[in-house]
Amino acid sequence: MLKDIITDRIGSIIYVVGSLIRGVSSQTFSEHKFEITPEQYLILLLIIENEGVYQRQICEITLKDRANVARIIDILLQKELITKVSDSNGRRIFKIIATQKGKDLIKKIEPCDMEIRKFVSRGITEEELQITKRTLEKIKQNVIDRVKLQI
């Protein structure tokens, strides 16, 4: 019998589960013909929940690099789901705000997002979910601390 390193290593398990959830989300968004991807949805939702957020803050919250966030922001701008407003403190600094079109799209997608989350957590108690979240946050912080040490 082959040893399955995927099930023996926490990092591998996290990677596989993340890949599966991204796949299910992408498939579901495609089936519903939503005009944005799950990744764009999460950033749009972040912008709505943090009105006037800066691109730098989106990078920090999502742990995505500037180029990736800039690409997503450009797509959301082209689709007129967000707008940029000049910050009063600097000419080249912009706050990012969702448009009404963006807010309406989020309302349209939210029920589908809830169904995905319900499906993913099926058979898992609320207590188990909370333990998992706390554990994953600790793992995330350990990795962040390691990355900071090497910079």
Structure keywords:
151 residues, three-stranded antiparallel β-sheet, 3 strands
Strand portion: 5-15%
DSSP strand tally: 3
What's the SSE pattern? HHHEHHEEHH
Structural class call reads mainly alpha
Give the distance, in angstroms, between the N- and C-terminal Cα atoms. Answer: 41 Å
State the share of residues found in helices, binned by percent: 55-70%
Tell me what you see in this structure.
With 151 residues, the protein is mainly alpha-helical. The chain has a three-stranded antiparallel β-sheet. Helix 3 packs across helix 6 and helix 4 packs across helix 5. It is globular.
Please give the structural blueprint:
Blueprint: H1 5-8, H2 10-31, H3 38-49, E1 53-54, H4 55-62, H5 66-78, E2 82-87, E3 90-98, H6 100-120, H7 126-150
